[in-house]
Amino acid sequence: MEDLRYPIGKFSAQESHSSEELKSFIHRIETLPVKLESAIEGLSEQQLNTPYRDGGWTVRQVVHHVADSHMNAYIRVKWMLTEETPVIKAYDEKQWAETAETQSEPALSIALLKALHAKWVILLKSLSSVQLQKQFIHPDTKKNVVLHNLMGMYAWHGDHHLAHITELKKRQGW
To answer: Chain centroid to CA 76: how far?
Structure first.
């Protein structure tokens, strides 16, 4: 079960990242929408409504979750850049995955991700070394999150959920 939940392993924050690692994070964020689009292309309604694991979200919900999560991440970056160590707003991702629009066509979230990631990548490419050290405080964990780690976390997050879909397709022979 652990492998199905974390097909690429868990994210691990680092003290620092090289410029090559940061470029890789940005590239992974930039290319995620097209990769997700490709991963779900041609899937039937039944396949879109298949959970990636027992008790897990459906493929459809995973795509909508990525859009919801990455919208929040983009806003968190903006807060870090415009406020001094803000306490961010948390959200219940499980409840968000149950709202009405998560039953709609995943193409809506793919379109949103394409626009959001295009804008986000412009912002991420513009960051200075000082800005990369900006932080926010998570209200639930009370931990500070550094911007360069947020970049790595969301590069990982996209790959993580993409792997949920691609690994399900392999297991099912789709």
So the answer is: 13
Is 0.85 topped by the overall pTM? yes
**How confident is the model at residue 3, as a pLDDT?**
86
Distance CA 172, CA 11 (A): 26
| Angstrom distance (rounded) from CA 137 to CA 88 | 6
Q: Exposed (0-12), middle (13-18) or buried (19+): which is 155, by Cβ within 10 Å?
A: buried
Query: From CA 74, how far away is CA 124, in angstroms rounded?
Result: 10
Is-contact 121 25, C-beta < 8 A?
Answer: no
Q: Yes or no: say if 166 and 40 are a contact pair by the CB < 8 Å rule.
A: no
Start-end of H helices in the chain: 2-5, 19-40, 45-48, 59-82, 93-96, 106-125, 147-172
Tens-place pLDDT, residues 55-67 = 999 999 999 999 9
